[in-house]
Design brief:
alpha/beta; 17 helices; single chain
């Protein structure tokens, strides 16, 4: 009753000022939610009104990254915390409760379909620019945000495909009331479990398992084709796509078995996430990672996405595109920090013609006395090594990007993007708090 009787000039209750002074309120001010919501199709007004607006749906994704919670736990926090409710633009009354545990996931799927990443990030850069100072220096690097999936091996992938195709055959035979085809799936399962439990898996034993599973998978695909030819089948879109993935896996694994040295383009490593590709990073602890490779650049500690792909790519050829994108957001670029993979002749010539000082090791003989340019190279190199690597680690540990649990390529792209943007917005929020300025009118 008190909140309804006493309100400010905009009609908000007295808790709104308290909310803006909290850390979440400062984070709320660092996002132009109303302007960003204009990028999405507006509701027609027909049918049941959604509980959250488009701005509230985006706020949910920001909260998920900021609090590093699962979808279900975030909904529980939203029910019990009035600060989170203000952040999403709702106010639950006494006894009112959000029971939809898929609220966060549905908004993630909706935003992933309609978002324009280029315009979205451009609006964020424009909103953050007044709180950034050293905009003439750019740092860039690439990293891999791993997806949540079991470590892929050929034996695991083949067994999952065999289990899936034979389960599909059993379901179809049950609907038709016909006898199931004979196969030695139980024996193969016991052999697969015995292989997985072995501490030492020899190459000879692995080859034997792959040969047996390839035979079982080929037989399953043949039996399914015969069933469809005789009785027909109506499959859902998702089941049909999964079946095509199983066929592709068989073709790739058979080619890999026949010629182990062959290079397979677009190799599938997960049946549940067929868009994931092996990303060879060459690190000491982990040579290969599985997830999205993201090329980012950083200006005054604020990170932006230049390119995101689930296919492996060479970040060294993306320097010129990154500089051009940064100059669209900010006035000019005078210093550039990047590691040695960017130091090819084309990039060196581009930076020289545009008057950009870089952290690249100079060619030729080392001078006897260090120059001012050498001093600038050292500063840029240290800044890239500390700030960029630190930003990647911070996003993975504290903003939900350690293991991305999204189920589709579109939602995983959105998940990663909001994680990076939320980490940058947190820095802007701290700068707003240090400035001790009055709250920005929402």
């Amino acid at each position: 009753m008190e909140n309804q009787l006493f309100a400010d000039r905009l009609g908000r209750d007295l808790r709104w000022g308290k909310f803006l002074s909290t850390p979440l309120g400062q984070l709320y001010q660092s996002f132009p939610f109303k302007e960003l919501a204009g990028l999405f199709p507006q509701s027609s007004g027909l049918g049941r009104q959604a509980r959250l607006s488009i701005a509230g749906g985006m706020a949910l994704q920001v909260l998920k990254a900021y609090l590093n919670l699962s979808d279900a736990k975030l909904v529980d926090r939203l029910n019990s915390d009035w600060v989170l409710q203000y952040f999403c633009g709702i106010r639950l009354g006494p006894g009112e409760w959000i029971r939809d545990q898929d609220l966060v996931g549905r908004w993630r799927r909706y935003l992933a379909v309609h978002i324009d990443y280029a315009q979205f990030q451009a609006i964020l850069a424009k909103h953050w620019q007044p709180h950034m100072q050293n905009t003439q220096a750019i740092l860039m690097d690439a990293t891999c945000y791993e997806s949540h999936l079991r470590y892929p091996t050929d034996v695991k992938l083949l067994w999952e495909c065999c289990d899936w195709i034979w389960d599909l055959i059993d379901q179809h035979c049950k609907r038709l009331s016909i006898r199931r085809p004979r196969r030695k799936q139980k024996q193969q399962y016991q052999a697969y479990i015995g292989y997985q439990k072995r501490r030492r898996k020899t190459h000879k034993l692995e080859k034997k398992r792959r040969r047996s599973l390839l035979y079982l998978l080929a037989k399953g695909l043949t039996q399914w084709d015969e069933l469809v030819f005789r009785y027909g089948a109506l499959l859902k879109q998702r089941t049909y796509e999964q079946l095509q993935t199983v066929r592709l896996v068989y073709q790739q694994q058979q080619a890999r078995f026949d010629d182990p040295d062959t290079k397979i383009k677009g190799r599938v490593v997960s049946l549940s996430k067929p868009y994931i590709r092996p990303i060879i990073r060459g690190k000491e602890t982990r040579r290969t990672e599985f997830g999205a490779k993201v090329h980012c650049f950083q200006v005054d500690g604020i990170s932006f996405i230049e390119h995101l792909s689930f296919e492996a790519f060479n970040e060294g050829i993306r320097l010129q595109n990154t500089v051009e994108l940064a100059q669209q957001y900010f006035p000019t670029c005078r210093q550039l920090g990047a590691d040695q993979i960017y130091a090819n002749n084309a990039n060196r010539k581009f930076c020289t013609l545009n008057g950009i000082a870089t952290s690249f090791v100079r060619k030729g003989r080392k001078p006897k006395q260090p120059t001012a340019a050498d001093h600038m190279r050292g500063i840029l190199s240290k800044a890239r090594a500390c700030l960029m690597e630190g930003a990647f680690g911070n996003e993975k540990l504290h903003y939900g990007l350690q293991r991305v649990r999204a189920r589709t390529a579109a939602t995983e792209t959105l998940w990663i993007s909001f994680g990076i943007w939320t980490a940058s917005a947190s820095k802007i929020a701290k700068r707003l708090a240090n400035q001790k300025a009055p709250p920005i009118a929402a």
